[in-house]
Specification:
heterodimer, A: 379 residues, 2 domains, B: Rossmann fold, four-stranded antiparallel β-sheet, 6 helices
C-alpha cells in the first residue's frame, strides 16, 4: 500500500513541493541559526584553545569567562608553582589597549602577554614571521584578520609600526588564530612588553598558565591549586565550557537565536501541517474509497505517516544541506561564526520530527474519522 | 428463471431501519424494510431522491451500520460484525462501482484495477498482471497505462467495474453507474454489468434513477419513504448478452 501512498503524494506536485519547502525552510532556519549560535559560542573560547602548551588556567576566584579580567597578585604565580603535581607555571596577561596608527586613527585591540622566557601562550600557526622574534624589543605578532582590519589592502608586511600607550610596537609576525567573539585585532607580545602597552596598574597578572606533571590528573591538580591557593583553577576544557556557560546564561545571545529558531519551527510547522492537512482533505475521497474497498484503518494510518515521514526526510535533508552550504560559503567570505556539531543535526531533526508528528496527527485523525459510507454521498 | 425462496437469497434484509441525526433533527431514511437479493441476478433499486436507496446500498455493502433490523449477506449477519470484521468482509466479498468512478487520479488504469488485490495483500506484480488481463477482457487493454483524467467517462467506468471485479466478489454494488454517462455509453456499461450478473455465484445490486437501464433489471425493487413498496421480477426473456469471460480466481 505504501507505493499507493507514494503515488498519491508525488502525484499532487504542487502540494508535495509546498510541503517539502515548508519543512526545508524550517530545517534551514533552525539549522542555520543553531550553527551560528554554536559558532559564536565556539568563538568565545578561541583564545583559550589557542594556548596549547598549558592545560591548566589559574585565575581570580571571581573570574567567569576569558574576557572577565580580575587580576591576581604577582606572588600567586609562585604559590601555584609550589602546588604538588604542577610541572611548571607562567604568567599570562590579557587585556585591552588602543593602537594609535600612523594616520592618527585609533583601533581597539586585544592584548595578550606571554611568558618572556618560554613564550608559552604564543600563537603557533604563523603566516609570516617567527614566534621567536617576539624576543626582539617592542615586538608584537598580530592575527591575520586584525591585520586586514587595520590594513585592508596589500600583502602582509613585517616591520609595520603603531603605538600603544605611547610606546612603539613593531609587527614581527602575522599569525592565524581561531576567530574570536570580539572582532578586534589580537596582539601577542611578551608579558613585560604587554604590561607596558597598557596604563600602569598595581596588579596586572591576568592568569597563571600551568601544566600538570606527567601522570598527574589535571582535574586533581586544579583541585589542589584551588585548595592551597584560594584561586580558581580550571582545565582548558573546563574553562572553555565555563566561558560558554557564562555567555549562554548572562547574555541575550541564546534568547535572540532561540527566538529565531522558534519562529522557524512555528512557521515551518504551520506551513507544513496546514499544507499536509489540506493535501489529506483533498485526498479524502481517495482514502474513503480505499476504506470502502476494505483497507484497514491501521493501513491508512501507515500510508499517511509514510507520506509525512517522506516529506520530513526530504525536507530535512534539503534544509540541513542548505544550512551547511550557507555556512561553507559564508565562512570563506566573511567572519561569520558558523559551527555544525552533531547537536545541530539532532536538534534540527527533532524539530522536523515534531513538525511531522503534528502534521500526521491532524491528518490521521481526519482520515480515521472518515465514514466510508461518505463515498456514496459524493463528498 | 427458476422460482426462488428467501433461503436462496444472497442478501436478506429484515425489518431494516435507519435514521440520521437526533431529536428534532432526526430523519428516518429506512423504515422497517424487507428485501431479498439473489445471486445470478441484477437487482435494481429505484425510487425518488431521498427514498433511502443509497442508505440501503451502504448497509448491504457493509459500510454503514443499520439502526435497527437484520441484514444477512452471504449468510453473515452484518450487524454482529465489528468494524474491522466488516472491513475484512468488504475486502473479500464486495465490489464497488461509484457514480463518480472514484478512481485514484495518481494511479494508471491498471494500477487502479489492482488496488483491491493489493489491499488484500497480493504482490504488486501479480496484482498488476491480473488487472491487465481483466482490462483486456473489457476491451480496455490499450488504455491500461493511462491515468483516469486521460480516459472518457465510459472508459473510467469500465476501469471502475474492472476494479470492482478483480478480486472476484460475490456481491457487486453499484451506485448510479450510468448517471454521469451519455445514453450509448450508459447502455454499454449496463451490458457489461449484466454480463457480470449472469454469473450464478454473484449478485449485482444497482441503485439508479436512470429509466433507460430498467430493462436490465432481473428484479426491480421500488423504494419510497424508506420502504420497499413493490418488487417486480422480469417477465420477459433476459437480454441476449454474453457473460463476461471468467477470470482466474486469486
Amino acid at each position: 500500500m505504501l507505493w499507493i501512498a507514494l503515488k498519491m503524494l508525488v502525484g499532487n506536485r504542487g502540494k508535495y513541493v509546498g510541503m517539502i519547502v515548508g519543512v526545508s525552510f524550517a530545517a534551514l532556519l533552525i539549522g542555520q541559526q543553531a550553527s551560528v549560535f554554536f559558532g559564536i559560542m565556539w568563538h568565545t573560547t578561541s583564545q583559550i584553545r589557542e594556548v596549547r602548551d598549558a592545560d591548566i588556567w589559574v585565575m581570580n576566584p571571581n573570574v567567569e569567562y576569558i574576557d572577565d579580567i580580575k587580576p591576581l597578585r604577582d606572588t600567586d604565580l609562585y604559590r601555584v608553582r609550589g602546588v604538588e603535581g604542577v610541572a611548571w607555571a607562567v604568567k599570562y596577561f590579557k587585556g585591552g589597549s588602543r593602537a594609535r596608527l600612523d594616520d592618527g586613527q585609533y583601533q581597539q585591540v586585544v592584548l595578550n602577554g606571554v611568558d618572556d622566557a618560554t613564550l608559552v601562550g604564543a600563537p603557533r600557526d604563523m603566516i609570516i614571521g617567527s614566534v621567536d622574534d617576539l624576543r626582539k624589543p617592542d615586538a608584537i605578532i598580530i592575527d591575520d584578520l586584525g591585520y586586514r582590519l587595520i590594513w585592508p589592502d596589500g600583502p602582509f608586511e613585517l616591520g609595520k609600526v603603531f603605538e600603544m600607550n605611547d610606546r612603539r610596537a613593531v609587527i614581527v609576525g602575522v599569525c592565524r588564530i581561531g576567530k574570536t567573539f570580539q572582532a578586534f585585532p589580537i596582539i601577542y607580545t611578551r608579558y613585560s612588553e604587554a604590561t607596558a602597552f597598557v596604563p600602569v596598574e598595581r596588579k596586572v597578572l591576568s592568569f597563571v598558565l600551568a601544566k600538570a606533571q606527567p601522570g598527574e590528573d589535571s582535574q586533581e591538580v586544579c583541585r589542589r591549586i584551588e585548595q592551597q591557593c584560594g584561586l580558581r583553577a580550571l582545565t582548558r576544557k573546563d574553562f572553555c565550557w565555563q566561558t560558554m556557560y557564562t555567555y549562554f546564561t548572562k547574555t541575550a545571545i541564546p534568547i535572540n537565536f532561540g527566538i529565531t529558531m522558534l519562529l522557524g519551527l512555528i512557521v515551518g510547522a504551520a506551513i507544513t501541517a496546514q499544507t499536509f492537512y489540506m493535501f489529506t482533505l483533498e485526498n479524502l475521497r481517495q482514502f474513503g474509497t480505499l476504506k470502502a474497498l476494505g483497507t484497514r484503518n491501521s493501513t491508512i494510518m501507515r500510508m499517511v505517516v509514510f507520506q509525512a515521514v517522506l516529506v520530513g526526510a526530504i525536507g530535512y535533508a534539503l534544509g540541513i544541506g542548505l544550512s551547511a552550504i550557507f555556512g561553507d560559503v559564508a565562512r570563506s567570505t566573511a567572519r561569520l561564526a558558523f559551527l555544525m556539531p552533531w547537536p545541530v543535526f539532532a536538534g534540527t531533526g527533532a524539530a522536523v520530527l515534531f513538525i511531522i508528528i503534528l502534521s500526521s496527527v491532524l491528518s490521521v485523525r481526519r482520515v480515521l474519522q472518515l465514514d466510508p459510507s461518505a463515498v456514496f454521498q459524493g463528498f | 428463471m427458476v422460482a426462488q425462496t428467501p433461503n436462496d437469497a444472497l442478501v436478506r434484509c429484515r425489518n431494516l431501519a435507519h435514521e440520521y441525526g437526533e431529536g428534532e433533527a432526526r430523519v428516518f431514511a429506512l423504515r422497517g424494510l424487507d428485501l431479498d437479493i439473489y445471486a445470478g441476478q441484477l437487482t435494481l433499486l429505484v425510487g425518488p431522491s431521498g427514498c433511502g436507496k443509497t442508505t440501503l446500498l451502504s448497509i448491504i455493502a457493509g459500510i454503514l451500520r443499520a439502526s435497527h433490523g437484520d441484514v444477512t449477506v452471504l449468510d453473515t449477519a452484518l450487524q454482529t460484525l465489528s468494524g474491522s470484521e466488516k472491513t475484512e468482509f468488504r475486502r473479500k466479498n464486495v465490489g464497488f462501482v461509484f457514480q463518480q468512478y472514484n478512481l485514484l487520479p495518481e494511479l494508471t488504469a491498471v494500477e487502479n484495477v489492482a488496488v483491491p488485490l493489493i489491499v488484500a495483500g497480493e504482490r504488486r506484480s501479480v496484482a498488476l498482471a491480473r488487472g491487465r488481463e481483466l482490462l483486456a477482457s473489457l476491451n480496455m487493454g490499450h488504455r491500461a497505462n493511462a491515468r483516469p483524467q486521460k480516459l472518457s467517462g465510459g472508459e473510467q467506468q469500465r476501469v471502475a467495474i474492472a476494479r470492482a471485479l478483480v478480486h472476484h466478489p460475490r456481491l457487486l454494488v453499484c451506485d448510479e453507474p450510468t448517471s454521469a454517462l451519455d445514453e450509448r455509453t450508459g447502455h454499454a456499461i449496463m451490458e457489461l454489468l449484466y454480463g457480470v450478473a449472469v454469473d450464478p455465484e454473484r449478485a449485482v445490486l444497482v441503485v439508479t434513477h436512470d429509466s433507460r437501464v430498467f430493462a436490465f433489471g432481473d428484479r426491480t425493487a421500488y423504494l419510497n419513504d424508506g420502504q420497499v413498496v413493490r418488487v417486480e421480477a422480469r417477465t420477459g426473456p433476459r437480454p441476449a448478452i454474453a457473460p463476461l469471460a471468467k477470470q482466474p480466481t486469486p
